[in-house]
Amino acid sequence: MSALLQVRGLSRHYGQRVGCEDVSFDLHPGELLCVVGESGSGKSTLLNTVAAQLAPTAGSVRYRQRDGEWLELGTLSEADRRRLAREEWGFVTQNPRDGLRLNVSAGANVAERLMALGMRNYSQLRGIARSWLERVEIDASRIDDAPTGFSGGMQQRLQIARTLVTQPRLVFMDEPTAGLDVSVQARILDLLRRLVNELGLAAVMVTHDLAVARLLAARTMVMQGGRVVETGLTDQILDDPQHPYTQLLVSSVLTT
Amino acid sequence: MTSALMLELRDLSKSFQLHHQHGARLNVLRGLDLRLHAGECVVLSGPSGAGKSTLLRVIYANYRPTFGAVHVRHDDRWLDLAKATSHEVLDVRRRTLGYVSQFLRVIPRVPTLDIVAEPAVQMGASTENARQRASDLLHRLNVPERLWQLPPGTFSGGEQQRVNIARGLIVPRPVLLLDEPTASLDADNRAVVAELLAEARAAGSAVLGIFHDEDMRDRVATRLFPMQALEAA
Amino acid sequence: MTPSYNFAFLDEDTKRMLRRALLKAVAIPGYQVPFGSREMPLPYGWGTGGIQVTAALLGPDDVLKVIDQGADDTTNAVNIRRFFARVAGVATTEHTADATLIQTRHRIPETSLREDQILVFQVPEPEPLRTLEPREAETRTLHALADYGLMHVKLYEDIAQYGHIATSYDYPVLVDGRFLTSPSPIPKFDNPKMDHSPALMLFGAGREKRLYAIPPYTRVESLAFEDHPFEIQRWEHRCELCGSGESYLDEVVVDDRGTRMFVCSDTDFCGQRRAEAQA
C-alpha cells in the first residue's frame, strides 16, 4: 500500500528555540498515528507544521491527493493549501471553541464545510447536518441551538461532526480529549474510534495520554525536546518501551 | 514431517533494559531456536519465569527481540518480524499471525458481538457476515445470547476469556499464538476450545501455545517445547 | 457657489486619487479598492464616502440628484444637495430622469436608469463577510480565493430561524461571477435592478476607506439556495397616493391614533405618477 503522507527531516524552529527537529514518518490511508509526549515536547508544533499551518524551517511534507498526484506542501500556494484543508483534510482543535463558529447554530456549524464545497440545497444540508448530529450523539432537535449553550463534551463532538462531514481523507487532531472529564473523554474516544473505522480516515493525533494512543492508534511516535525518541507499533511502545524517556512515560501512567 | 514450515525462530534473545532501575538488565530469552509447521500444535512448557509469555509476545512483535530472527511465512514469502516495518507487522497480524492472551482488552461501549466480529470486518467481511460468524462462535463457546449486545467489561473472567477466544479465532490464520486462553474455563468449555483448535489445525493452522492445565495440554499438544528460566545476568 | 472653496470642495489632487481608485474599481467589478478618505464637513455615517465619490465625478454641467431612503426631501438628502450646490454650483434636481449623477442612501430609484447616468451609493460597511469574520486580513484572503461558503452560513441561519431568508436589506450579491459584494443597505427589492444595469454604479465607504464599482451591464446575482431561491418583497397594498403596485412601499403612521398608510418610498416616482394621472 502506498503512503498518503510522507514527512522527511521536518524541523520547525522559533528563532533559536527548537519546536521540532528532524522528524520523518509515513502515514498510510486509513491509519491513525498518535504523537505522544509531554507539554513542550514539540508535538503540536509538529502537527501544525505537517498540516501546513506553520512553515517548516527544514525538511519536507508530501501528500498524495485524491487524484493520486503527490503534492509538496512546502511549495503550495495559499489557495491550494486552503483547498486541501477544505476538500481533503480536517483539523480538530483541543479547545472546541477554536474550531467552532460559536455565534451560529449547531446545524450551520456542521453545514459550513459542505457549503464551502458548493452545496446549495438547504433541505439537503439540513438533512446531512441532522444525521451527523445523531452520529456524534447530539440530539437532532438541537440543530438550531448555538453551541455556546452546549457542554464541553458536546462542543467537541460538534467539532468532530463539523470536521468529518465532508469525509476528509486526512484529519489532524490536537489533543481532542484534553480538558474534558474522564467519562466525557471515553465517549469521545469511542466515537472517534468508530468514525475513523467507518470512514477509513487517516489521522495524525497529538496526545499526552498513552491510554488514548492504546485505544485508537496502531502506531505511535514518542517525542521529547522536539525530537522523536521512539516510534513503532503502539503496543510495542507501551508494553516494551526502549528509550529511557518512553519507559518513564509508560511507568508514570500505567502503574496505577 | 512434510508439512510446510510456518514459523522459524533463530538464535532469539530478549532482554529488558530498565533505564530507571539503575539500568538493570533482565535476560529472559537467549539463543532460542524453534520451528513450527502447519497443522502442529507446539506447547511451551516450563516453570513460570521461563519466558514462555515473553516468547509469544516477541513472536507477535509485541516485544522487540534483542537479538535473532523471527521468520514468518506470510503470503508464501518469508518475513523477519525482527526487521519488518510497522506496516508489515500490522499486515502480518491482520492476515497471518493470531494472538489470544488470557486477558480481553475491553473497548469501552463496544458490544461483545462487534468485538468478536471486528477482525473479520477488518479482513473485508461484510458486517452481516462477520456478525453471523461471531454468533456461531459465541454459541459454540456457550456465551449466553443475552450478553452479546453488552460490552464485556462487566463479564466474569471466564466469559471474557471466551469472548477473547472467539475474537482470536474468527479469522482463520496460518499461525496462532495462545497464551493460556483457557485459564479460567471449566472442563466443558475447555473441551470446546480444544475442538476449535483441532479444527484450526485440520484447516492447516500452526499453533504455538501455553497451557498450564495438563489435561488441556495433553489434549491439544502434538509436541512440547521445554523452556528454562535464565539466571539474571 | 461659494468661491472660497475649490470646485466640489475637494482639492484636485484628492479628486485625482479618487478617480484612479474608481478606475481600478471599475476594472475589477465588486472588488473593494482602498482610498485615502478625507475629513468631510459631515460626520461619518452621513454619507462621507458617497460625497467624496460624487465630488470626484462632478463637472460643471452635471445635474445632481440626492436621495435618502428614496426621498429627495429628507434631511440627509437636502443637506448633501445643498452642499454641492454651494461648493460646486451644479444644477440639482429631484427628477430621476433629469439627473446625470444620483447620490443615494438605501435605495435605487424606481425609474429605470440610463447609460448616461451614474448612481453613487453611500456604504456604511463595505465588507459583506464582516459580521461572520471580523479579521480584515482573513476576509481579504477569502475574497482573493473566492471562498464564499461562509456567506451561505448567514443565509442558512436565516432560514433555520425564520423559515425563509429573512435578510431584507444589504442582501449579498456576487458581481460578475467573481466578487461577493455588499449592495449597501438597499432593500433586496432593489437587487434585481443592479443586474445588467445600463448605469454605472459606484460605492463609497468613508469610514472604512473603501470604494467599489459595478460597471454597466454587469451580471449581479443575489445569493440563495436551490430550494430557497432569491425573492423580493411583495405587498398586499398599493401606494395610497399614486396607486402603484410595483414600487417599494413605506408604511407610515399618519396620526396619533396609529392610522397607517402605504406609500411609495421613491418620492419622485410617486409624484410623477400623480402628475401624469392628473394630466
Low-pLDDT regions of chain C: none
- The overall pLDDT of chain A, averaged over residues, is 92
What is the subunit arrangement here? heterotrimer
Derived structural class of chain A: alpha/beta
**SSE order of chain C, one letter for each helix or strand:** HEHEHEEEHHEEHEEEEEH
Brief digest:
The complex is a heterotrimer of chains A (256), B (233) and C (279). With 256 residues, chain A is α/β, with parallel strands linked by helices. Chain A has ten helices and ten strands.
Please, could you describe this protein's structure?
The complex is a heterotrimer of chains A (256), B (233) and C (279). With 256 residues, chain A is α/β, with parallel strands linked by helices. Chain A is 40% helix and 25% strand. Chain A contains 10 helices and 10 strands. Chain A has helices spanning 43-50, 78-87, 96-99, 106-116, 122-135, 152-164, 182-199, 210-216, 234-239, 244-254, and strands spanning 5-14, 17-27, 32-36, 58-64, 70-72, 89-92, 170-174, 202-207, 219-224, 227-233. In chain A, the strands form 2 sheets. Chain A has a 6-stranded mixed beta sheet with strand order 6-7-8-3-9-10, with helices on both faces. Chain A has a 4-stranded antiparallel beta sheet with strand order 2-1-4-5. In chain A, helix 5 crosses helix 6. Chain A is globular, with a radius of gyration of 18 Å. Chain A starts with a strand and ends with a helix. Chain B has 233 residues and is α/β, with parallel strands linked by helices. Chain B has a domain at 100-172. Chain B is built from 7 helices and 9 strands; from the N terminus they run βββαββαβαααβαβαβ. By secondary structure, chain C is of the alpha/beta class. Chain C has 2 domains: 12-126 and 173-220, Rossmann fold (3-Layer(aba) Sandwich); 234-279. In chain C, the strands form 3 sheets. Chain C has a 7-stranded mixed beta sheet with strand order 1-9-8-5-4-2-3. A 3-stranded antiparallel beta sheet of chain C has the order 7-6-10. In chain C, helix 3 (75-87) links the parallel strand 2 and strand 3. Chain C is globular, with a radius of gyration of 19 Å. Classes of the chains: A alpha/beta (256), B alpha/beta (233), C alpha/beta (279). Chain A binds chain C through residues 78-79, 82, 86, 101, 104-105, 107-108, 111-113, 115-118, 120-123, 125-126, 143-144, and chain C through 132, 141, 144-145, 147, 149-150, 152-153, 156-157, 159-161, 224-228.
